[in-house]
Amino acid sequence: MRRLAVIATLFFIGTGAGACGPSGVETAPKGDTPVAEPQGGLPAESEPPAPEPVTWPHEPSGGLVPGSGTGATDTTIWAPGMRFPMEAAPAYANSQVYGYGGFAAPGPGGQCDARNYAYPWRDNFCETRGWTNTMCPTGKGHQGQDIRPATCVKKVHNVVAAEAGVITSIGSYSVFLRGDSGLIYRYLHMDPAHVQTILTEGQRVTRGQLIGKVSDAFGGSATTIHLHFEIKAPVTANGSTAVIFVPTYPSLEDSYGRLLNAAA
Predict the structure, then answer these.
(1) In this predicted model, what pLDDT tens digit does every residue of 111-138 receive, in sequence order?
(2) Distance between CA 245 and CA 234 in Å, rounded?
(3) Is 188 helix (H, G, I), strand (E, B) or coil?
(4) Are 200 and 169 in contact (CB under 8 A)?
(5) Is 45 a residue whose pLDDT tops 90?
(6) Cβ(131)–Cβ(142) under 8 Å?
(7) Fold of 143-263
(8) Any alpha helices (H) in 85-124, and if so which ranges?
(9) How far apart are CA 206 and CA 160, in angstroms?
(10) 185-209 pLDDT per residue, tens
């Protein structure tokens, strides 16, 4: 009997659950595979895709209305970083002379025709005029860009400073701003009463500050409701430097794109 008890005890020690191996370390039961702990924690979340930039239909720089002249070939952004000259979008860069309601209109329709207040944009720097403009292929032409506000209503759409600087001149419907960069910005056809109320010559303004409202003032006779916007810059050619009118459209494209994307 004593011999049988010893055999049973040895059998239990050698085959029971949690048996030890030859070194005395406890081992897993036969047939069980240890599971490794996950390493590195949870997988990293992927970055969200960058939003697509907001764009709008616009013709290329120099692409004037057919038959209205030959556009400038220079596509330099002369005023990089400038504030778009109207406070809010939408705004429509196009020709007020060759648009509906202008004296060279493509067909019947008044200045408030919906086709004037729609994209695409179109350049009209160098459009046929008798004014000197050395950046134009003919040496003469329109010296700035016409921009219509969001609606065909005057004295409600705000015009703002393109950059920080000093107001150098105030006319009956015009404002000249000399920016800290040295560029000169000229704004025409604004509401005379408002311009002469809020501004004084020699006044310092900040970038984006209100300086007027879009109107149709043009001396003794009205033009269409639009802002005429110009940029003058020092340009060196043939060894001499002169401050001249430079193509406005590329800088307007650049600043309007930033305005749209900031509002998106």
Answers:
(1) 999 999 999 999 999 999 999 999 999 9
(2) 9
(3) strand
(4) no
(5) no
(6) yes
(7) Glucose Permease (Domain IIA) (2.70.70)
(8) none
(9) 9
(10) 999 999 999 999 999 999 999 999 9
Please name the residue that has the structure tokens 């430079």.
246
Q: Is the distance from CB of 194 to CB of 114 less than 8 angstroms?
A: no
Per the DSSP assignment, residues forming a β-bridge with 235 are 242
Which tens digits make up the pLDDT trace of 161-180? 999 999 999 999 999 999 99
The two tokens of residue 42 are 């949870």
Domain boundaries, the chain: 143-263
Q: How far apart are the first and last CA of the chain?
A: 94
- Within 13 Å of residue 103, how many CA atoms lie on the same side as its CB? 3
Q: Give the pLDDT of residue 39.
A: 59
Q: Which helix (H) or strand (E) holds 121?
A: none
Task: Find the mean pLDDT for residues 30-51.
Answer: 63
Per this entry, what is the length of the chain?
A: 264
Question: Does 12 have pLDDT greater than 60?
Answer: no
Output the DSSP codes for 214-262: B---BTBS---S-EEEEEEEEEEETTEEEEEE---HHHHHHHHHHHHHH
CB-CB contact of 249 with 123 (8 Å): yes
Element (H, E) at 161: none
Is-contact 70 137, C-beta < 8 A? Answer: yes
How confident is the model at residue 44, as a pLDDT?
Answer: 65
Tokens 């429509």, residue located: 92
- Do the Cβ atoms of 211 and 186 come closer than 8 Å? no
Between CA 189 and CA 145 the distance in angstroms is 12
Residue 197 Cα distances to 65, 108, 206, 237, angstroms = 37, 38, 17, 40
- Predicted confidence at residue 23, as pLDDT, reads 44
